Prior knowledge:
Elements: E1 5-7, E2 36-44, E3 56-60, E4 63-70, E5 77-83, E6 91-95, E7 100-106, E8 109-115, E9 120-125, E10 131-135, H1 140-161, E11 167-170, E12 177-179, H2 187-194, H3 200-207, E13 212-215, E14 218-221, E15 233-244, E16 247-257, H4 259-264, E17 277-290, E18 293-296
Amino acid sequence: MKKFLFVPLSLLCFLLISCSGLQANDNDVSIVTEVNTEITSEFSSTPHEEIESANVTELGDGYFLEAAGITQENGDSIYYLWHKDRLNLRSAFLVPTDSELIHELDGDTLYFMNCPKSQYRIGVSYASDDIIYLGFDISSDTYKDVVKLYEEALIAFGWFEIEVLSGNEIDEDSGYVKVKHDIFYSYETFNDYLKTLFSDDVVQSLLSRDLYKNINGDLYAAPSLGRGTNGFIVKWHYGVKRESENHLVFSVYLEKMTEDFYRNHAGYYPYKVPVDVEQIEIKTYELEKIDGVWKFTTFEYPN
Length: 303
C-alpha cells in the first residue's frame, strides 16, 4: 500500500461569499450571510491495487472501512469507505477519535459508527453509496426532508450565484429580460417560492442584488453570462443535527480532488478509478422552523 501524506489542517471560518456583495467574516455576524465554512483536512492518496487487511474493517454487504490515518491538528481519524464491487466509488470522511464501530440497519441505510463527541451516527446508503451523518435525535425521515429542501434551495440560490433565469423578451427601458418559466409566471410567484426555502431576511438579501425586477407584475432578469462551479468537488455528503426544537444545523462535506488527478483524468464522477482526495471541506448552514416550516436562515453556494 502506498503511504499517505497528511498536511496540517487549515481553518477558514466565515469565507467571503463570492459574487454576492455579501460578506461573512469574524466581524459580520448577520444571520442572513453567516455561513460557517472550514477546511477540516488536507491529505493526498493514491489508488490502491491491494488493501492491507490490518487497516480494513468489514462492515457487511460488501462494504469495508480503511483506516487512512490521523489528522495532525486535532487527532481526528481519516477513513475511506469502499465497496468490494465498486472500488472506484471510494468515499473519504473524518470522525472524532472517541468514535466507536456499530452495526445498525435502518431501512436502506447501514449505520457503522457512533460519534458521541459530534453527536452523529455515520452510515452509508445502500441506494447511493453516500455517507450519511445523522444526529442522535434526528429521524431518517427528517434527514431526507432536509436534504430535499437543501437540494431545492441550492437550485434556487444558483439563480443568483451561478446562472440567472432567462427569457427572450427585452424591456427596452431597463434592459432586463422577461423570464420564461413554467412555474414563475409573475414576480410574486417567484418571491413566494423563495420564501418556501429561505427566511425573509435571506430572500430580501438575494433580491437586493437587483438581478430580478418586478415590471408590471412580471418577473424580469438582468442579462447575465453566469459562472461555473468548482470542478475539484468530486463528491459530497450531508449531515443533520438538532440544536433545539426549532433549530437544525445542516452540514455539507465536500470531497475535493487533487490538482494532479483533475488534470490527468477526463470526464466526470463516477471515475473508473478511486479519486485522489486532497481536502474535505465542511459548510454549515442553519435552519429554523418558521410558521411550522423548516427554512434556511443562512446559505452559501458550495464552491
